[in-house]
Amino acid sequence: METSIENLLQDYRKRTEETSLMHAMQLNIGLLTVLQKQRANSKLRSLAAIKIIAVILGIIWVLFLAVLVYGAGFKYPYFSISASAIIIFTVIAIVVYIKHFILISQINYSESITATQKKLSELKLSTINVARVLFLQMPFYTTWFWSSTWIHYDELNFWLITFPITLAFTVLAIWLYKNISPANSHKKWFRILFNSPEWTLVIKANEFIKVIDDFENEDA
Amino acid sequence: METQNQKDLFLKLIQENRGIIFRICNSYCQTKNDREDLAQEIIYQLWKSSHSFNNTNKFSTWMYRIALNVAISSYRKTKRSAPVIYLTEDDTAFNKSEETGHDKEEQFELLQKFINELPELDRALMLLHLDAKPAAEIAEILGITETNISTKISRIKEKLKQKFSAIK
């Protein structure tokens, strides 16, 4: 028996519309108020909550270090300089992170699909800058315990072990700062470094930008 | 959406066009729970974006933009390996008049599967095409040119035809 796709689709349309959840939905202001509360609650339960916790922990860490720096003053210059540098990089990262988070939540969904999705993906991708900045603080975690007395007392060990370690961390931090970019997201070291669900979404945002570009291209 | 009347009018417009939400939820979600969740998110975003609706635009065009953007974003966050596509409009892309041995249900499932394999943007395009939207409106919603729309629809139809041919 000959059957056309059109007939199949029409039959299915009738079937699906009969069971449509939307048919049962009558919109009113009361329902929307409930919906707004539900959405707010579900967002708090989702990944957004983890991000908020990360920002709060970051702020607590900065405040803790600030108190220590204030207490140490000029008595422990290596500690004060190292902790201050860590505070600066962490604050920059927190500000950038919050800024991106707000921009993503304020995205205009009423623009065209390609424009909105590209903006959204580019914003997600730009959170990589947070990681780049955070890596720059790495060497300062190897210098906070230095002291002039200790360096003079054990000069050989300082120049043979401690200083090369700091130097290695400095080179690595600068290298990572320069090389962490969407262009390198396909590389193995990058995928190992950013192997978590949140970063996977960021990396996929880069791939989606390419998909959108292809979609916009008439020859694609 | 300042006054109560404007709010009511806005809700009425959403209610009248609720089929758009229904079709999009069915296209981008696998389970009933996910569909309901996405439907709520779309309605929430429509309400939140109500200030951006310009009376010079067609309401369904504006609604499609928001609903598809929310659906694609949500789909990318919780991407599943094989979401089910439920088509709701007839398509004249191909006639399968030859005897195939498949019954109606099997043919439908195959069509679902094939469209299901399309990337999310192509799927959005097919959704609009199956909703019999003119090329100009599809172009406005997706943000690509009308020529590009025609080319892409032809290519997608060709792919679907080939897939059906391959299983004969």
Report the count of strand segments of chain A.
0
State the distance separating the first and last CA atoms of chain A. Answer: 39 Å
How many distinct helices of chain A?
10
Approximate strand percentage of chain B:
under 5%
Describe the largest sheet of chain A.
none
What would you report as the Rg of chain A, rounded to the nearest angstrom? 26 Å
Approximate helicity band of chain A? over 70%
Q: Proportion of β residues of chain A? A: under 5%
Number of DSSP strand runs of chain B: 0
- Unreliable runs of chain A, pLDDT <50, ≥5 residues? none
Number of domains of chain A: 1
Oligomer: heterodimer
Cα distance, first to last residue of chain B? 55 Å
Order of helices and strands of chain B: HHHHHHHH
Describe the structure.
The complex is a heterodimer of chains A (220) and B (168). Chain A is flat and about 80 Å long. Chain A is mainly alpha-helical and 220 residues long. Chain A has one domain. Chain A has ten helices and no strands. Helix content of chain B is 67%, strand content 0%. The longest helix of chain B is centred in the last third of the chain and has 21 residues. Chain B is an all-alpha fold and 168 residues long. Chain B has eight helices and no strands. Chain B folds into two domains: 84 residues, Rna Polymerase Sigma Factor, Chain: A, CATH 1.10.1740.10; 80 residues, Arc Repressor Mutant, subunit A. About 13% of the residues of chain B have low confidence. Chains A and B meet through helix 1, helix 2, helix 5 and helix 10 of A and helix 1, helix 2, helix 3, helix 4 and helix 5 of B.
